[in-house]
């Protein structure tokens, strides 16, 4: 968390302008990496590192007592914690960066005009106003960690016991659902109900976290606006006792200049040197943090290109189905296949999800921004926010349960997957639409109204027109999130290896390949998985870049 | 240039400034006299604000901002000095009131003092009282200096910003269209304040409002398209300008 904040500060405030665009893109990309990729990367790179180097090292240093006791195997609570930290870091820093850059330039310049260094200007003028946004970012990150399923399932060790040390395997609610729900359906109603009930517990937990987060942000905001919380520290009398002394000093041509101020000015050059070193120190720390954040990305990219690069350039990778699993041996040549069905599957699922979520989401967003100033509005807003925080595994469970109940033939199907993804995308689209519409200045709306436009045309033509780019961006980001989604699909699509048969039949998807084939132990499958990883990363990169360019081209209102 | 004083508080020679590749100031020579008010007038986009921002080295903090030429403060080149030190001597107030929104009135004014390294309660209190009184705000806020600064009216916020700048103890005060976001009554108060300040400070004010320049300024400089067209006493500029361009502008023929 401190690392994430430092990254945000560095990127928006301290970094040289030229480096900013590139670095920001990198961190955004990091935030867009699907969790299954993180998990996959963690199993192959982080787990061995933990098992062979880090954990024995810690045990050696601490004498392997208390939280550090037990067998250091890598697949444990500590590793899962580190993966989670790596995963939520970019989320926190991306959102905090938004909050920081929302503070106007003039604030910074005002501070600098008082003789503040760049860091001091940040501390004085920027961190305060941005605080509620930063807090929101942190809670958002924690919320994401709480519900994170796939990466944790892969590395936590899945042991159904209360962990006794940081090195013992553990299990989270979401990882349990992910690994056991599908088989529980087959086993019988009791197991199934137990898991769904666990899901309910997790749901209540996330809702509680979200409600607390909202309340905290709300309290900070109202504290700022109303000033109801300010404490009186300086009474009129306490300040006035200096009046006579000041009055008698008026003879000085530069106004009142008491002894102490002259002394302070005299000490200033030396202080400035010290303050400059503070600035350098903090800039350095923030830079280090940024580097630290980029290391996993570099490692992921390197591994993906190294192991999956060969697959991606082969045309059959896009057209063929997965081969039968095998390991190359002395006498065996393995068939090399592709993930064509899964690519198609991902496209179908995304198309389905978008077809459901886009119209509904945008309409809700318009409603909230334009007509939501009644009793219903804030309620819908709140529900949307909470929905954003609901772990995807729960959305998957929910959709599965609904389908089992009313349309059980298609419980594992493209249709169910698409519905699950659309539920996932919906709150994101609503939020971005609403935010985008709210940034359209009132003056623009009013000038359109003044020209005699009816209200609905103002909304449709003027407001939506102005905010179009931002809405498209939101939709793209939502699609990116859905495209990398694993947990929900794991439960609803059936993880099919072959060409899609129809909407009510099981279907494959890229993230599922990574999840299932990646750790199968078969060399040719793993290559396919890395290829799929690289492909997903490429798609995320393209989406991330194009949204940034789109937003950049849009006229800024400043 | 003929009527300008030969040596001033701030003397600028051959100043060029750029935003990215676009040059916005060309070869400015200007001596700003010590004490009194110097107004900078000219149509929008003529480089007035940029010029002001060069004077406390803020322009070079702007993305793409670049400066060449010489600016001397009391005969010393400001680019050879630490920029923080320069900004302590040359304060600035912006177009829109910009109090730090999360700080109280007291803490806003004390912010500059704290940056100077002043920590003692007595010294901070005295400095805050002094600045608030100089900015003519004390009478209005004395009942609760711990109230949030954002609760003040626009005009009060602007005077708070002036108080905040004064607290550091500058010699020069740069005002970038300080009244353009204020109503007429608040404007009058700020102008009144500028009148009082010029006894002890060198005030440089950028303004769009020609009447304001005639009301507050002793000297006036007219900028057009990034160049200094004419500089002289306000009386000269407005009533006997040497350049046709200046005459056209001050009589309202363009701009």
Mean pLDDT across every amino acid position of chain A: 67
- Strand proportion of chain A, as a percent range, falls in under 5%
Measured distance between first and last alpha carbons of chain B: 22 Å
Proportion of strand residues of chain B: 25-35%
Structural class category of chain A: mainly alpha
What is the radius of gyration of chain B? Answer: 18 Å
Radius of gyration of chain A: 27 Å
Most extensive interface between two protein chains, with residue counts: A-B, 53 and 60 residues
Given the structure, what is the number of helices of chain A? 22
Q: Helix and strand succession of chain A?
A: HHHHHHHHHHHHHHHHHHHHHH
Helical proportion of chain A?
over 70%
User: In angstroms, what separates the terminal alpha carbons of chain A?
Assistant: 31 Å
Sum up the overall morphology of chain B in one term. globular
Oligomer: heterodimer
Largest sheet of chain A: none
Features of this protein?
heterodimer; A: about 550 residues; mainly alpha; 22 helices; about 0% strand; globular; B: about 260 residues; alpha/beta; 6-stranded mixed sheet; 4-stranded antiparallel sheet; about 35% helix; about 25% strand; disordered N terminus
Task: Break the fold down into its secondary structure elements and pairings.
The complex is a heterodimer of chains A (558) and B (255).
Chain A lengths: L1 H13 L2 H16 L2 H28 L14 H25 L3 H9 L4 H30 L2 H6 L17 H15 L1 H38 L9 H5 L2 H6 L10 H55 L2 H4 L20 H32 L4 H14 L2 H15 L7 H26 L2 H9 L4 H29 L3 H6 L17 H8 L5 H31 L5
Chain B lengths: L9 E10 L2 E11 L3 E6 L6 H8 L9 E9 L2 E2 L5 H7 E4 L11 H11 L5 H14 L3 H4 L12 H14 L4 E5 L7 H14 L4 E5 L3 H7 L2 E6 L2 E7 H6 L4 H7 L5
Parallel strand pairs in B: 3-8, 3-9, 6-7, 7-8
Antiparallel strand pairs in B: 1-2, 1-4, 4-5, 9-10
């Amino acid at each position: 968390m401190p690392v994430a904040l430092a990254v945000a500060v560095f990127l928006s405030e301290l970094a040289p302008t030229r480096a900013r665009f590139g670095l920001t893109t990198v961190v955004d990309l990091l935030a867009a990496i699907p969790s299954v990729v993180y998990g996959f990367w963690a199993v192959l790179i982080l787990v061995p590192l933990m098992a062979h180097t880090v954990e024995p090292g810690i045990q050696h240093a601490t004498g392997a007592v208390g939280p550090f006791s037990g067998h250091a195997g890598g697949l444990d609570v500590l590793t899962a914690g580190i993966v989670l930290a790596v995963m939520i870091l970019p989320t926190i820093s991306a959102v905090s960066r938004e909050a920081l850059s929302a503070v106007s330039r003039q604030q910074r310049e005002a501070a600098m005009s008082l003789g503040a260094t760049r860091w001091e200007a940040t501390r004085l003028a920027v961190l305060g106003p941005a605080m509620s946004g930063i807090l929101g970012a942190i809670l958002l990150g924690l919320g994401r960690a709480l519900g994170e399923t796939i990466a944790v399932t892969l590395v936590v060790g899945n042991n159904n016991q209360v962990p006794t040390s940081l090195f013992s395997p553990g299990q989270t609610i979401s990882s349990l659902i992910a690994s056991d729900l599908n088989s529980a359906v087959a086993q019988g109603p009791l197991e199934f109900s137990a898991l769904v009930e666990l899901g309910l517990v997790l749901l209540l937990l996330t809702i509680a976290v979200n409600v607390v987060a909202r309340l905290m942000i709300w309290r900070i905001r109202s504290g700022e606006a109303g000033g109801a919380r300010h404490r009186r520290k300086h009474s009129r009398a306490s300040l006035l006792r200096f009046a006579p002394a000041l009055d008698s000093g008026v003879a000085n041509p530069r106004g009142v200049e008491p002894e102490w101020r002259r002394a302070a000015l005299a000490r200033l050059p030396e202080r400035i040197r010290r303050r400059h070193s503070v600035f350098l120190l903090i800039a350095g720390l923030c830079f280090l943090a940024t580097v630290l954040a980029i290391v996993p990305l570099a490692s992921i990219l390197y591994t993906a290109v190294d192991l999956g690069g060969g697959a991606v350039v082969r045309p059959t990778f896009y057209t063929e189905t997965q081969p039968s699993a095998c390991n190359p041996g002395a006498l065996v040549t393995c068939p090399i296949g592709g993930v064509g069905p899964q690519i198609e599957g991902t496209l179908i699922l995304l198309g389905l999800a978008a077809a459901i979520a886009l119209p509904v989401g945008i309409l809700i967003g318009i409603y909230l921004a334009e007509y939501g100033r009644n009793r219903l509005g804030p309620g819908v807003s709140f529900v949307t926010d909470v929905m954003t925080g609901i772990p995807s595994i729960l959305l998957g469970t929910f959709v599965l349960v609904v389908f089992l109940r009313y349309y059980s033939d298609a419980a594992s199907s493209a249709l169910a997957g698409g519905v699950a993804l659309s539920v996932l995308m919906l709150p994101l689209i609503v939020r971005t639409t609403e935010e985008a519409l709210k940034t359209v200045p009132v003056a623009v709306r009013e000038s359109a109204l003044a020209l005699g436009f009816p209200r609905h045309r103002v909304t449709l033509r003027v407001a939506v027109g102005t905010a179009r780019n931002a809405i498209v961006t939101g939709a793209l980001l939502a699609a990116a999130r859905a495209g990398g989604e694993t947990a929900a699909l794991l439960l609803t699509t059936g993880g099919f290896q072959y060409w899609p048969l129809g909407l009510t039949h099981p279907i494959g998807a890229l993230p599922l390949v990574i999840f299932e084939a990646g750790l199968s132990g078969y060399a040719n499958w793993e290559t396919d998985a890395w290829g799929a990883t690289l492909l997903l990363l490429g798609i995320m990169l393209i989406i991330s870049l194009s949204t940034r360019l789109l937003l950049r081209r849009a006229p800024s209102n400043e | 240039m003929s009527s300008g004083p030969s040596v001033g508080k701030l003397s600028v020679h051959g100043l060029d400034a750029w935003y990215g590749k676009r040059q916005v100031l060309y070869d400015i020579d200007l001596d700003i006299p010590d004490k009194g008010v110097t107004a900078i007038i000219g149509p929008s986009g003529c480089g007035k604000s940029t010029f002001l921002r060069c004077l406390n080295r803020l322009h070079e903090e702007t993305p793409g901002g670049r400066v060449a030429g010489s600016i001397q403060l009391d005969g010393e080149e400001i680019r050879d000095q630490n920029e923080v030190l320069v900004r302590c001597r040359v304060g600035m107030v912006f177009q829109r009131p910009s109090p730090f929104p999360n700080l109280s009135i007291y803490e806003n004014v004390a912010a500059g003092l704290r940056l100077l390294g002043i920590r003692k309660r007595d010294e901070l209190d005295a400095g805050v009282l002094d600045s608030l009184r100089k900015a003519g705000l004390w009478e209005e806020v004395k009942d609760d200096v711990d109230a949030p600064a954002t609760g003040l009216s626009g005009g009060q916020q602007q005077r708070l910003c002036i108080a905040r700048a004064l607290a550091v103890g500058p010699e020069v005060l740069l005002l970038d269209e300080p009244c353009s976001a204020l109503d007429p009554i608040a404007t009058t108060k700020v102008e009144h304040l500028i009148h009082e300040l010029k006894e002890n400070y060198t005030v440089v004010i950028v303004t769009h409002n020609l009447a304001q320049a005639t009301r507050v300024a002793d000297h006036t400089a007219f900028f057009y398209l990034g160049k200094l067209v004419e500089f002289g006493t306000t009386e000269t500029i407005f009533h006997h300008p040497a350049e046709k361009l200046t005459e056209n502008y001050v009589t309202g023929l363009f701009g």
